[in-house]
Amino acid sequence: MTNRRRLEQLRLSWASRRFSFPDRSPIDFTPEFFRGSLAALNSGDLKIPRVNVLGVGISALNIPLALGAIERAVREKHKGYICVTGVHGVMESQRSAELRRIHNESFLTTPDGMPMVWMGRLRGARQMARVYGPDLMLAVMEASAERGYRHFFYGGTNGLAEELRVKLTERFPGLQVVGTYEPPFRPLNELEERELQAQIATSRPDILWVGISTPKQERFVAEYLPKLDATLMVAVGAAFNFHAGRVQEAPRWVRHSGFQWLYRCAREPRLWKRYGVIVPAFLFSATLQLIGLKKYPSPHAI
Question: Which residue, 99, 101, 192, 226, is most buried by CB atoms nearer than 10 A?
Fold first, then answer.
């Protein structure tokens, strides 16, 4: 089957039904939602257009387009890493040129938070929708159970990665999770790195999911992509805790209101120190960018 035909089937399958996961409210994806979204993939180009958000190139996409790009990359063995990025990642990138470069050199940097979507739409990317890490993970797992893609989980503590493997394989019969690894709270030493490389070489995953929090996970996927025998590496942070059932996720209406950070702070007061600083700073900087008072260079982003 040709790539064009596969992508057209993907578009039709997602456009003709309501996409929903167990215990989640459905999201409507109409044919109009896709208009122009698959142009790059249909033309044979794996590069997705990006929107400049404070110098970070956020991929102008939605879950179906992200899934199509991931499936094609796996099928064609196109190595790359994916950053799932919201306000936190963008503001961390203001302090670190290295982290900003990592985001801008990714295969995809998805709009994990609604502020990324709003910025994209204001800058003309009207097909853009939230590609929330936990939702993207479930979408890929659902497709993988049918297509046979192999997965590896890196991150967590106290058995979290194994709990996640059990939960997701129960939820998606036929899903192949071929290994897990829970790292120490520090960079891997030489022995640990060799052990991980051997485990990955033996298990041969298509996608390695990394859940060790921002910005450590972004630095990890950028450093280890050339070292590990996996096609894609995806930094998804709290998705491990959510899908393993250790942390309660915000209701859907909160996730799409732009105030998920407030919900998380209410449940995890330690996060006030983070979001109490970065949210006002982001609003101020984003306003300056939108009205043209400050320029943020970003390669290949509109």
Answer: 99
Q: How many CB atoms lie within 10 A of CB 189?
A: 10
Residues spanned by the domain of 273: 252-290
Q: What is the pLDDT of residues 24-55, one digit of tens each?
A: 333 333 334 344 445 445 555 667 899 999 99
Asked whether residue 127 falls in the same domain as residue 99, the answer is: yes
Q: Please indicate, yes or no, whether residues 109 and 167 belong to a single structural domain of this protein.
A: yes
Looking at the domain assignment, is residue 274 inside a domain?
yes
Same domain? For 185 and 237 the reply is yes
Other beta carbons within 10 Å of 120 = 25
Nearest to 155 by CA among 208, 194, 201: 208
SS (H, E, C) 161-222: HHHHHHHHHHHCCCCEEEEEECCCCCCCCHHHHHHHHHHHHHHCCCEEEEECCCCHHHHHHH
Q: How far apart are CA 241 and CA 211, in angstroms?
A: 9
More confident residue, 232 or 261: 232
* Shared-domain flag, residues 96 and 209: yes
Task: Classify residue 13: in a domain, yes or no.
Answer: no
Contact by Cβ (8 Å): 183, 219: no
CA distance 56 to 104: 6
| pLDDT (tens digit per residue) in 134-173 | 999 999 999 999 999 999 999 998 999 999 999 999 999 9
Cis peptide before 215 (omega within 30 of 0): yes
Domain count, the chain: 2
Task: Output the pTM of the full model.
Answer: 0.84
Tokens 């109490």 found at: 276
